[in-house]
Design a protein that fits this description.
It is a single chain. This protein is mostly helical and 167 residues long. It is built from 9 helices and no strands. The chain folds into 3 domains: 2-63, Winged helix-like DNA-binding domain superfamily/Winged helix DNA-binding domain (Arc Repressor Mutant, subunit A), CATH 1.10.10.10; 69-112; 115-163, Arc Repressor Mutant, subunit A, CATH 1.10.10. It has helices at 2-32, 37-46, 51-63, 69-84, 88-97, 102-112, 115-131, 138-152, 156-163.
Length: 167
């Protein structure tokens, strides 16, 4: 009987150590940058923590507000617009890759990228890009500018309206 109790104690002690290591690992990951729930779960799984430990850590982080996909999405979208000048489609794609659900993405992008601001951001990006393309023939200039704006995540409507003004 004592053997069974000691095995249980060792198992509980081992689980507690794993839980502590997983929490510390999660805290470290969150100090680098905010992360989505799915991203953090994947990182902890990649570090070979058992699924029950990962679930317990995630519950702990959600309970104390360290993980909030809605807040993360809004911050990510606003930062990408502000720092990189990205359009809606690019931001939506990045958030999907981070495991955010479509409804949360839609809300975050609607808040961070109003339609008139997106058009203005596209115009700014186009003007900046055109400065470096002065010596390029008009057709190639339009083609390259369209590809550039598409990679930035702007819609086809916005791109075509900008291309109509380019000579």
């Amino acid at each position: 009987m004592n053997l069974d109790k000691s095995e249980t104690i060792e198992t509980d002690d081992s689980r507690a150590k794993q839980l502590t290591r997983a929490k510390n690992s999660a805290y470290r990951l969150l100090t680098y940058r905010p992360r989505s729930r799915a991203e953090l779960e994947q990182k902890l799984s990649d570090r070979e923590f058992p699924p029950d430990i990962v679930s317990a850590v995630m519950a702990h982080l959600v309970q104390f507000g360290y993980i909030d996909d809605h807040k993360f999405s809004r911050q990510w979208a606003a930062a990408r617009v502000r720092s990189r000048g990205y359009g809606r489609r690019r931001i939506e794609q990045e958030l999907r890759q981070k495991g955010i659900d479509r409804e949360t993405i839609r809300e975050a992008v609607d808040e961070a990228v109003p339609a008139e601001d997106e058009r203005e951001a596209a115009n700014k990006a186009a003007e900046k890009k055109l400065k470096s393309m002065k010596s390029i023939e008009p057709f190639a200039k339009k083609r390259r500018l369209a590809g550039f704006l598409e990679r930035k995540g702007f819609s086809g409507d916005i791109i075509s309206s900008i291309l109509r003004t380019v000579r």
